[in-house]
Amino acid sequence: MTTRLVIFGPPGAGKGTQAEILASNLNIPTISTGDLFRSHMSEGSELGHLAATYIARGALVPDEVTVGMLRERLEAKDVNNGFLLDGFPRNVAQIDSLDDLLGEDGLSAVIQLEVPEQELITRLVRRGEESGRSDDNEEVIRKRLAVYEEQTAPVAEKYRQRGQLITIDGTGTVEEISDRIAQAVADL
Ligand code: AMP
Question: pTM for the complete prediction?
Fold first, then answer.
């Protein structure tokens, strides 16, 4: 059986960190749309230039661009045994696109990390100081959290209605959180 997962949550919830641990335990690739955009930007590709203007503002890159990039990534052979999506779907329309891309089998589950907002801001400001990611400054962080509330949070509701949402407490140490996720995935 292939494991087709989404890791879901607001910016700063720890999706990237937990995705890396979970994907390596399951021996499946992580597909992060944010990382795909960042590699396009560092290569200076046309798509990278287009995405950069949205990313710098904390806005979502238009769906057609994002979906096209994801479609191409899902054509690679390494996703045959499954994958873990990080950062997609990020609005309700992207759920339909993902349904189309995946066809009949669909997703195994959506893992939602829950973290209180004040903790998110603290984590993101710290990450900005350490990583130098240009969109981790306080103004853009607030914008990204607002975009999350408006456009991305409703995605969780849709998957909850489908019975596919697994909510995990995203506070505590990295290991505590990854243990909770591992247990939930083992029960699938
Ligand atoms: P992330 O690394 O997931 O925080 O993504 C960084 C930025 O990339 C976001 O703030 C968006 O501008 C853009 N981005 C990532 N994933 C998506 C997506 N699924 N749809 C639209 N924009 C995205």
Answer: 0.94
Gap between the Cα atoms of 136 and 139, Å rounded: 8
Closest CA to 140 of 11, 29, 39, 34: 11
**Closest to 108 (Cα-Cα) out of 9, 34, 187:** 187
Span 90-97, mean pLDDT? 98
Locate the ligand 1 atom nearest the alpha carbon of residue 33 and give its number. Answer: 16
Reduced to 3 states (helix: H, G, I; strand: E, B; else coil), residue 29 is coil
Pocket around ligand 1: residues whose beta carbon is below 6 Å from it?
11, 33-34, 37, 54-55, 58-61, 66, 87-88, 90, 94, 135, 144
Q: Strands (DSSP E) along the chain, which ranges?
A: 3-8, 30-32, 82-86, 109-114, 165-169
